[in-house]
Amino acid sequence: MSDHNQNIKAFTLLGEFITEHFQLQEEPKQAGKYSGMHKILNDSIEQSLEHNPWFTKKHIEHAIQAIGQMLTEQNLNLWLNQYQIIEPSEERRIRIGVIMAGNIPAVGFHDFLCVLMSGANFTGKLSSDDPYLLPALAKILSAIDNSFEDRIEFTSEPIANATAIIATGSNNTLRYFEYHYSSLPHIFRNNRNGLAVLFGNETQDQLDALAKDVFLYFGLGCRNISKLLVPVGYNFSNLIKAFEASSYVKEHEPYMNNYKHNMALYNLQQGVFLDNGFLILKNSTAIASPVATLNYEFYESLDELVQNLEECQDQIQCIVSEMKLPFATIAFGQTQQPGLEDYADGVDTIKFIADLKS
C-alpha cells in the first residue's frame, strides 16, 4: 500500500472510531473495535467542558461527529482524486505550522487533515480555549497508524522551523501573524461570518434548519449565520417561531449575560430591534454581530441584493439560501456540516501545500 493510500486508510479508521464512539454511548454494553481508545476522547471532552464554559457537551459532540461523517473512504478519495499528491521521503518532508482558533470545538481539524494528507509534517499551536480535543484525535490517529507519531507535534510557543504557516484568528490577531510570519509562505485568516438570504417563501422546515445555523456553538463559528438579508416588508413571525426550538441557550449563563448586556445597550441607543427573550434581531448593515444578536437588512430588488453581496465578499464565509444567486450557496441547516472541499475563506489548503513542494 502506498503512503498516500495508507493515509486515507488511517483517517478512514479514525472516522470509524468516531462513529463507534457515539454508538457505544447509545449501546454501552457493546464491545467495540476500538475499546482501548475511547477513554482518550472521553477525557479530552471532560477536560474541555471544565476548561471552556462556551464548550457544551452537545456542541463538542456535534463537532466531533461532523468530523467522523467527513472521514469515509469514499469522501476522502473523491476529495483527493483531484490532486496529484506524492508522498516524499521522510528526510524531504516539509513542515507546516498551523496556528488554530478556539472559537468552536476542534476547529483546527481540517487544517490538520490537509497538512498530513498533503504529505507534510504538522506543528500545531493550539488556542488556549481549545487545548485538548485535537491532541486527543491526533493521539488516536497515531494509535491507528504509528507512522504519524513523528509527523505530528503540538507547541505552546511561537512556531519555529516551519516551511509555511496557516493561521486563523481574529482581525486583531492578524496583525500578530503578519508581524511574526509574513516572511514565510502563508495563509492568514481573520474574521468572516455566515449570511442567509431569504425571499419570504421559505418553508417552516427550512426556517427550523436555519435556526441551527444561527444558534449552534452559540453563534461563535465563522460559518454561523450572523446576518439575514430579507425583502422589504418581510414578516419575521415564522422565523421567530422557528427560533423557539433553540431556547436551550437560555440555560447557558455566559450566553445570557451577553444577551442582557446587548439588550441594555440597544435600549440606550434606541435602535430598531426585535427580541424573543434570548435573541435580538437588529436592523444593521454590519455582517458580524455580537453574541445573542442577529443582524438583518432589507433589500428591494435582486440587483440591489447582488450588489450588496458583491461589496462584502471578503467578510462572508458562506451564504445560506434557496435563491438562485451568482454566488455559491448552501442549504439551510448545513453551515456547520462542511464538506472536505469547503476550504475556509475559499483558499485551497491542499493546493497551497502542493505548490510549496513543487
Compute the number of helices: 12
Strand fraction equals: 15-25%
- Provide the gyration radius in Å: 21 Å
Look at the structure and give the mean pLDDT.
93
Reading the helices and strands in chain order gives HHHHEHEHEEHEEHEHHEEEHEH
Q: What is the first-to-last residue Cα distance?
A: 24 Å
Strand order of the largest sheet: 8-9-10-7-6-11
Number of strands: 11
User: What overall geometry do the principal axes of the alpha carbons give?
Assistant: globular
> Helix content range of the residues, please?
40-55%
In terms of quaternary structure, what is this? single chain
Low-confidence stretches: none
Q: Can you summarize this structure?
A:
With 358 residues, the chain is an alpha/beta fold.
Throw out a few tags for this protein.
15% strand; 358 residues; six-stranded mixed β-sheet; five-stranded parallel β-sheet; single chain; alpha/beta; globular
What does this structure look like?
The longest helix is centred in the first third of the chain and has 24 residues, at 3-26. The radius of gyration is 21 Å and the shape is globular. The protein has a six-stranded mixed β-sheet, sandwiched between helices. A five-stranded parallel β-sheet has the order 3-2-1-4-5, sandwiched between helices. The protein has twelve helices and eleven strands. Helices cover 41% and strands 15% of the residues. The protein is of the alpha/beta class. α1 (3-26) packs antiparallel against α3 (57-70), α2 packs antiparallel against α6 and α8 (204-215) packs across α9 (237-243).
